Amino acid sequence: MKKTGAYRRLFHYFLQGMLILAPIAITFWAIAAAFSFIDGILPNLIHGIVPSLMEDKEGNIRTIPGVGFILVIGLVIGVGYVSSSFIISRMVDAFDKVLEKTPGIKFIYSTLKDFFEAFAGEKKKFTHNVLANVDDNNVWRIGFITRENMEEFGFQDYVAVYIPMSYSVAGNVYIIPKSRIKPITNISAAQSMKFAVSGGVTVVVEEHQI
């Protein structure tokens, strides 16, 4: 019995250690993976164009850790800065229209553009958090209105609601009557998304009160 109790305590300590270390380890792994990916974009691109410029004597790609990351981030910031000017913004709009009308390319480009605009910029979508009665019963789901007018689909007084899945980046879109929508006013859209994706275990009330 004593051995069984000792094993249980060891297992309990193991779980406690996992609860502490797993989120920390996964967070640092994700940051390191993102840094490594961004840091390798520019060297790999230059190597693809001029291989001899980036290869050492053994044929490996020469890199200076951190330089590629700084250059890529600087390039993105620079593009964002110059795109705010009148002339550059008109050029970007013209190029945007060309891509959206080019057969084959327009589907990929427009889909990716809408995806990124849903999370950032002036057109971001996941800001109107609501409770949605999808199944017409007394069960409510946390969602985000992505389109408030569905008349082009033949529906009057309907909205498109994105319902995120717990512990997943996926989700589903439902077209439901406006009467089965309740706006969430006491917590932010980001807190609503965190609550839904975490399976309801994230505490959001305390964040709101701070």
Q: Care to describe what's here?
A:
- The structure is a single chain.
- With 210 residues, this protein is of the alpha+beta class.
- It has a domain at 129-209.
- The protein is built from 7 helices and 5 strands; from the N terminus they run H-H-H-H-H-E-E-E-E-E-H-H.
- It has a 5-stranded antiparallel β-sheet, covered by helices on one side.
- Helix 1 (2-49) crosses helix 3 (67-82).
- The longest helix has 48 residues, at 2-49.
- The radius of gyration is 24 Å and the shape is flat.
- The two termini are 48 Å apart.
- 8% of the residues are buried.
- The model is unreliable at 206-210 (pLDDT under 50).
In terms of topology, how is this protein built?
Elements: H1 2-49, H2 51-54, H3 67-82, H4 86-101, H5 105-119, E1 129-132, E2 141-147, E3 158-164, E4 171-177, E5 181-183, H6 189-197, H7 205-209
